[in-house]
Amino acid sequence: MAETMHCYRHPNRETRVSCATCGRPICTECMRQTYVGIKCPDDAKLPRTAQTGVMKPNQILMSLLAGLGVTLIGIPVVALIFELPFQWLLSIAVGYGAGTLIYRAGGRNGGLLATTISVFATAIPFLVWLAPNALAGAADVFGFVSMVLAVVAASLANRRL
Ligand SMILES: [Zn+2]
Ligand SMILES: [Zn+2]
């Protein structure tokens, strides 16, 4: 026997249904059928774009940790890429891989936060190697193109739904 809850908008009405997003109990009158399940009116109102990329706190933490890991591992990886042929292709592959890792760590939600973490985690290892020369006025244009390609690939990896 499931315990009885009361609609958060109508405290005198019993219900066994709760919102798929916030978990608050809702009565039959308040429930809204959405493509991801039954929701309360507040959450059903949000446009679709606001719902993608909504992460739970542990998924945000995992995304940040994955981003940190990618940044640290990325520094020697980028140094290696700069020594190899097909630098641009490798950068795309590595950037996409990094973005995918962060996307998965965040529970496959994608969205703005995962994309932002991916962009920074991918760009920072490149900048570690590129910034000193750039600041000295001898920017490695090929290196910067690699960085842009890797960053674009990383953010694209987070666009899948
Ligand atoms: Zn709700
Ligand atoms: Zn209600």
Structural class: mainly alpha
User: N-to-C SSE series?
Assistant: EEEEHHHHHH
C-alpha Rg (nearest Å): 22 Å
Poorly predicted spans: none
Q: Going across the major beta sheet, what is the strand order?
A: 1-2
Helix content: 55-70%
Bound molecules: zinc ion
Please give the count of helices.
Answer: 6
End-to-end gap: 36 Å
- How many beta-strand segments? 4
| Average pLDDT metric | 89
**Main sheet overview:** 2 strands, antiparallel
Task: Tell me the β content.
Answer: 5-15%
Summarize the structure.
This protein is mainly alpha-helical and 161 residues long. It has six helices and four strands; from the N terminus they run E-E-E-E-H-H-H-H-H-H.
Tell me what you see in this structure.
The chain has 161 residues and is mainly alpha-helical. Helix content is 60%, strand content 6%. The protein is built from 6 helices and 4 strands; from the N terminus they run ββββαααααα. It has helices at 41-45, 48-51, 57-83, 87-105, 111-135, 141-156; strands at residues 5-6, 14-15, 32-34, 37-39. Strand 1 and strand 2 (14-15) form a beta hairpin. Helix 3 runs antiparallel to helix 4 (87-105) and helix 4 packs antiparallel against helix 5. The longest helix is centred in the middle third of the chain and has 27 residues, at 57-83. Bound molecules: zinc ion (2 copies). One zinc ion binds next to helix 1.
